[in-house]
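FW: tagging you since you asked about this chain on Friday. Here's the raw sequence from the shared folder, copied in full. Didn't touch anything.
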Amino acid sequence: MLEGPADGVFTEGSTVTWRARHFGIPFRLTTVVFDIDPPHGFCDQQVKGPFGAFHHEHVFIEHPDGTLMRDTITFRSPFGPLGALVDRLFMRSYMRRLIEERNDVLAVSVDGRRA
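HL: got it, structure written out here
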């Protein structure tokens, strides 16, 4: 994360700017947080960044071994029909892998063991 709430606590309307490098190109993505429903989940949506549209829903589900997180991401690349082709041929699988890898990092129980 590059920029976010100073205290690290997200509230309705908080903005967060992420910095990442994909395909060797640096990107910045700024999202606004909304529909916060503790402890069930929240959403964020791009307000500035590389996508034509980007919406991310985070849902937290109670589980006997901890908490399950389900991510639902809806995105659209820019550039109209060309972007739609890129999404179908490449971006859909790339984004799925990216989120799965991110979630693997998060999937650690409190005692440090993989969940």
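FW: The mean pLDDT is 90.
HL: agreed, and Residues 15-106 form one domain.
FW: great, closing this out.
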